[in-house]
Amino acid sequence: MAETKAKRGRPPKSATASKQVEEKKTENTSQDEIIKQLMAQIEEQNKKMAEMQSQINKQPQTTIIQQNSGLSGKKVKVVNLMHNPLNISTEPNGMGRVFTFREYGDTRLIKYDDLADIVASYPNTMEGGLAYICDKEVVESLGLSEEYEKLFDKATMDKIIKLREESDLELFLGMDKNLQESTARKIAERLNANEKVDYNYINTIKEKTGIDIESIAENLKDFDKKPDDEE
What we know:
By secondary structure, the chain is mainly alpha-helical.
């Protein structure tokens, strides 16, 4: 019976070179896919932020009856409570005088007359406390007292993002939907930074609002991850 000898030693150079080329192609394809996925995620995030700003711009205009004309010309402190840039203006759809808040906690001094026009042009934004008016007298004059009884100032918002106490959870659940989504992103960033939070509250938020903070945290990790870090 003829004996079949197994091939030993180094494979032919042509076969080795071909294998290396294929491996290189596979590696490049993998990196290309990672880049495409990251770009798609970034584009989706930018689209969501643009849609949020678009919703703000399309708010129905209302008429504000100023109760105290003596405030005309007064400069009023307004703070952004959204964890993303926010634009408001004295006329609907971003027209008129525009005031830009670049990040959470940014403040602007806005003349009372301009602020009255902003409240008329962006009632949902102003009534929801996305841009928070830090002057009780002005709030009353602009007819927002009832709405502001349910709103939170920056000190309270700073506490909510820690999500360590049941009161933080209850306050979160009572916020404007836009503020909930914005604050959820900040909480997700804290998760990724290994900050202490109560995961029972994270789960309750998901159940009651549909906002999955853990999923947001994972997406943020993908945004921050560079293709070169992938193996």
